[in-house]
Design brief:
Structural class: alpha+beta
Order of helices and strands: EEEHHEEH
Number of strands: 5
Largest sheet: 3 strands, antiparallel
Strand content: 15-25%
Helix content: 40-55%
Radius of gyration: 13 Å
Number of helices: 3
Shape: globular
């Protein structure tokens, strides 16, 4: 399953659009980690997020960078 893809709006059958950011819950699912761990990674700077209103979003690029660093043993 590719967690970077989301269906196009309005049930359009065109190609899906790459996901630019994840909610905390989506990041938990995509990474297989718990909420506390996700918040710890945000606090430590290992994941980069933005806040829009009351919602915190984790940048997709940050998730990819985190996984690449973890694969190299740096996370």
């Amino acid at each position: 399953m590719n967690c970077d893809r989301v269906p196009a709006p309005q049930r359009d059958l065109r190609a899906s659009t790459p996901k630019l950011a994840f909610t905390i819950e989506q990041a938990c699912y995509a990474l297989g980690l718990g909420r506390t761990t996700i918040y710890d990674l945000l606090a430590s700077g290992k994941l980069k997020g933005i806040k829009v209103g009351n919602r915190r979003l984790i940048l997709s690029e940050s998730v990819h960078n985190f996984l690449a660093a973890a694969a190299q043993g740096a996370a």
